[in-house]
């Protein structure tokens, strides 16, 4: 419900977001914005919508959400919009999502014509929410005479720079993640730590983070991602849901854990070596730490992804380990569902990151570094939300940057 105190450090002015969208709609003569992406729902509605959902934004006034009937009451209760602005669709004649939304749009545009914006495109992120081909066909059949235009860039532009409430939500999510890391660190220093499996390590972190206020482990990426031994060294591997593999002597252990606070996502990876540690393993670990430090020093306003990548690969090449690095050192992040996007995804390959995107102050992204040497069954990962400042970046997780050796 719309009862958040504007003095709350987590306050976001969602009404202003709607007005800003409507201003952009007016510039493009758009009468209705039909949102279907998860990032759009999160950014406007401020509630987790796990089912296929849509938002209809008129040129004036408040938006209306359409979600699966089994979740409509909860969404209405949790959102600032309230229950009057959340409708439930169901597999009943004339009550499916296409019929309901089309009828609603007709009630808003009673002259039988107008311009309707929708969201489509391409993504490597599974729950993106782009309008499907079938949905597009159905909507255009139900709304004959209306003009349809793809206008997702409106949301993408407006949501790129993060306000203080959003940044503070991410700071709290990162604080919670650090509590999960401390729990794992403590468990690895217990006498029977070698009995732990990857799944148990994930659960230890989840329990402590839940107690600290996390509401999700960000299940899209496999919850908390734990990789030990050879699993840490998958080539280009950056998604490792835990298994029942036990940690073992002489192996690396990568711990990539997640939290969610008010739809903001904590994401931080920390790394270990279980003794005995070889000189070669330590060399890999030191290479990795040096690259992370370099990346954190490079992120700031006015630089670009390609600038950062070139600096890091020059260093790695001179030190003979460039083959072990994933050729990219960030991924996007925003409120739940805004994943992978850097800038406007208007690079050489449409809908993919632009390597020449110029970072601006108060952009928020994940500094992400994957170091993998599969032939030696070893790898490390670093992920941490960072806020871009004029001459630096601010890493939100404060857990110490090191590769700990566990006796």
Care to describe what's here?
The protein has 407 residues and is α/β, with parallel strands linked by helices. It folds into two domains: 14-158, Creatine Amidinohydrolase, Chain A, domain 1 (3-Layer(aba) Sandwich); 164-406, Creatinase/methionine aminopeptidase superfamily (Creatine Amidinohydrolase), CATH 3.90.230.10. Helix content is 33%, strand content 20%. The longest helix is centred in the middle third of the chain and has 25 residues, at 164-188. It is elongated. The termini are far apart.
Name the descriptors.
single chain, 407 residues, alpha/beta, Creatine Amidinohydrolase, Chain A, domain 1, Creatine Amidinohydrolase, 2 domains, six-stranded mixed sheet, four-stranded mixed sheet, 10 helices, 33% helix
How is the topology of this model organized?
Blueprint: H1 14-27, E1 32-35, H2 38-45, E2 54-58, E3 64-68, H3 69-78, E4 86-89, H4 97-108, E5 115-118, H5 133-142, E6 147-150, H6 153-158, H7 164-188, H8 198-211, E7 225-228, E8 252-261, E9 264-274, H9 279-298, H10 305-318, E10 330-332, E11 364-373, E12 378-388, E13 393-395, E14 403-406
Parallel strand pairs: 1-5, 3-4, 5-6, 9-14
Antiparallel strand pairs: 1-2, 2-3, 7-8, 8-9, 10-11, 11-12, 12-13
Helix pairs in contact: 4-5, 7-8, 9-10
CATH superfamily of the largest domain: Creatinase/methionine aminopeptidase superfamily
Number of strands: 14
Mean pLDDT: 96
Q: How much helix, percentage-wise, in residues? A: 25-40%
Low-confidence stretches: none
* Outline type: elongated
Q: H/E element string?
A: HEHEEHEHEHEHHHEEEHHEEEEE
Structural class: alpha/beta
- Order of the strands making up the biggest sheet: 4-3-2-1-5-6
If helices are DSSP runs of H or I spanning 4 or more residues, what is the number of helices?
10
Beta-strand residue percentage: 15-25%
Give the biggest sheet: 6 strands, mixed
Provide the CATH architecture of the largest domain.
Alpha-Beta Complex
In the CATH hierarchy, what is the class of the largest domain?
Alpha Beta
CATH topology of the largest domain: Creatine Amidinohydrolase
The whole-angstrom Rg is 23 Å
Number of domains: 2
Tell me the distance between the termini.
Answer: 51 Å
